[in-house]
TrEMBL record:
This is Dihydroxyacetone kinase ADP-binding subunit DhaL. Signal peptide: none annotated. GO terms for cellular component: cytosol. The keyword Kinase applies. The lineage of its organism: Bacteria, Pseudomonadati, Pseudomonadota, Gammaproteobacteria, Aeromonadales.
């Protein structure tokens, strides 16, 4: 079971993680984009951390909706609307919940990723954040089918996401700014896939504790 408190702890921890990883993500984005992805994520989650205390005692849907709205209004570029949509869509599935089972968490993340796709139209292999999420979702589906507990299921999802991130190195970007580079985008790790992996990494760590 993932509790409301763990969701809040996760989102607050993301603010710290994106502070720490800001230069790393920005470096990745400098290679194939405009070098602002770390700044975008750091700024967005700093705002989320500011807003969270006012909704931390509400149900999970409200917490996630506030996160999404905050990212939508404070982060520009491609990733702001995409991550904003992700969290707003997860909120719809989590609406009214004080805790989430693995199956509910899986449904929630799947819905969030569907939101990203509805907005950005990414396909597998396009070198986007979805190339981290899709393998993670597949691992969650598999864990759910096998009746695995939440912590090992998230560990499996994280490791699948990590492989997905590594695989973006060999991909040619077909969405977003990196696609302007054509074949020159090959050989670089996608910044958005990397930040998606960091979101999962942070969640997996909270659940392990
Ligand atoms: P911008 O490119 O506007 O500066 P960011 O640098 O914050 O925005 O985010 C770039 C990341 O956004 C990319 O690394 C990629 O993972 C993701 N991205 C861009 N376009 C799309 C899309 N259409 N679908 C999914 N993800 C996308
Ligand atoms: Mg950028
Ligand atoms: Mg930008």
């Amino acid at each position: 079971m993932l509790t409301r408190e763990q969701i809040v702890t996760w989102l607050m921890a993301c603010a710290e993680v994106f502070q720490q990883e800001r230069d790393f993500l920005t470096g990745l984005d400098s290679d194939i984009g405009d070098g602002d992805h770390g700044i975008n994520m750091q700024r967005g989650f700093a705002k989320v951390a500011e807003k969270l205390p006012s909704v931390a005692d509400q149900e999970i849907g409200q917490i996630l909706k506030t996160t999404g709205m905050t990212l939508l209004s404070s982060v520009g570029g491609a990733s702001g609307p995409l991550y904003g949509t992700f969290f707003i869509r997860t909120a719809q599935v989590a609406d009214g919940h004080q805790s989430l089972t693995l199956s509910e968490l899986h449904a929630m993340l799947r819905e969030g990723v569907e939101g990203i796709v509805a907005r950005g139209r990414a396909e597998p292999g396009d070198k986007t954040m979805c190339d981290a999420w899709w393998p993670a979702l597949a691992a969650l589906a598999d864990a759910e089918a096998r009746g695995i507990a939440l912590a090992p299921a998230l560990a499996a999802a994280l490791s699948a996401a990590e492989k997905g991130v590594q695989a973006t190195i060999g991909m040619q970007a077909r969405k977003g700014r990196a696609s302007y580079l054509g074949e020159r985008s090959i050989g670089h790790q996608d910044p958005g896939a990397t930040s998606s992996w960091l979101l999962l990494l942070t969640l997996a760590r909270i659940v392990e504790e």
